[in-house]
Task: structure prediction
Amino acid sequence: MMRLQLKRVYASPADTDGIRILVDRLWPRGLSKAEARIDFWAKEAAPSNELRRWYQHEQEKWPEFQRKYVAELQGNPGPVQELIAKTGHGNATLLFSSKETSLNNAAVLKDYLETLL
Result:
């Protein structure tokens, strides 16, 4: 069974990361592709630009952000299926750039993926 974990993309890669998947729509600021060591960039599975701009990590919007993001994922299953196919059955680390380590799109995506596996 696949094991999913979350990690900031700025943290050092580890052998236990498995496949490293960037789940942000935008490339992380100040980070080269070599430094990031990304195996797959799932930007189509990230929140839409409209939703991302609306949320702006305002904690009071978190419940509504979760609902809207899951609705986006359900309405466009292709990128999620591609992400699942890329991960296989080993470890996978969903990488995000936000300083907010728990109330972010990667956490919502992880929970959503776990309901499908």
In short: The radius of gyration is 13 Å.
